[in-house]
Design a protein that fits this description.
The protein is mostly helical. It is built from twelve helices and no strands.
Length: 265
């Protein structure tokens, strides 16, 4: 009973913080001018499948980084049901953990777990040791923390498969689930918000790039003065930015040594 109550506190605190932060971002998005379009849906879905489901754009630009991201992405998708079942169990809502279907599903997650672990370790090495110029001069402690969180989730999952019921198994479960909800609480205030927003952002991207609306000089509203002038899609893009440095790498001014760096805007 006390364990269930403690887990309710963890979940409520995490979900409450997440919801409050996301509500703030929703209000900013709603206040932005313009609309979000979903015209030409077949073309949008085609891009969604290529860029989100199969991570084609990242793989094309940086193959080994792309495949690492692909492993992490598919692992997160696969683990969605597992996390839901364990959360419902921890809250005392329903226990599906002893069902045959869940046991089979759990063992089917092992290759996804290995893919996530391999991918996140590669990304941690790249960010913490290799340090390509596009990531910037300073080490992102937040990224390292999130990477360690993900690695620990996978390790505790694998360990949990081998532990018999008892104190060690419960401790391992608590470590796993506490990290899940700590991760959830961190997402809105970090670049990892892209995990939630990027699928929608890709779907909302204009099928034809490079279209610029005509300027209305009579209204004397040329250019942007404040963040409030950004259209809805630009605000969503800003929230989704993963700070990968791709804009910096493709900026002609930055490439010639100028001070302009779009990543720092």
């Amino acid at each position: 009973m006390l364990e269930t109550l403690a887990f309710w506190v963890v979940v409520a605190g995490s979900v409450g913080h997440f919801a409050a932060q996301m509500a703030t971002r929703w209000r900013l998005l709603q206040a932005a001018p313009g609309t979000l379009s979903l015209d030409q849906m077949p073309r949008r879905l085609d891009r969604f499948l290529r860029e989100v489901v199969f991570q084609s754009q990242v793989i094309r630009g940086k193959p080994w980084v792309g495949f690492a991201h692909l492993g992490v992405f598919w692992g997160f998708v696969a683990f969605g049901g597992y996390t839901l079942v364990e959360t419902l169990y921890g809250l005392g809502v329903v226990d599906l953990t002893e069902t045959r279907a869940f046991r089979v599903y759990t063992w089917l997650l092992v290759p996804f777990c290995v893919a996530v672990l391999a991918g996140i370790l590669l990304l941690l090495v790249r960010r913490g040791i290799v340090r390509p110029r596009s990531l910037g001069p300073s080490l992102s402690k937040e990224s390292i923390l999130i990477g360690l969180f993900i690695a620990t989730l996978m390790i505790t999952f694998l360990v949990g498969l081998r532990l018999p019921p008892g104190p060690l198994e419960r401790a391992n479960w608590w470590v796993h689930m506490t990290i899940v909800f700590a991760f959830l609480a961190l997402i809105p205030n970090s670049k990892h918000l892209h995990l939630i927003l990027s699928p929608g952002t890709v779907l909302l991207k204009a099928p034809v790039l490079g279209t610029i609306p005509n300027l209305d000089f009579e209204k004397e509203e040329v250019g942007l003065e404040t963040v409030k002038d950004l259209p809805k899609k630009a605000v969503l893009d800003a929230f989704t930015c993963v700070e990968c440095g791709r804009c910096q790498e493709n900026c002609p001014a930055f490439a010639t040594g100028k001070l302009l760096n779009p990543k720092t805007l």
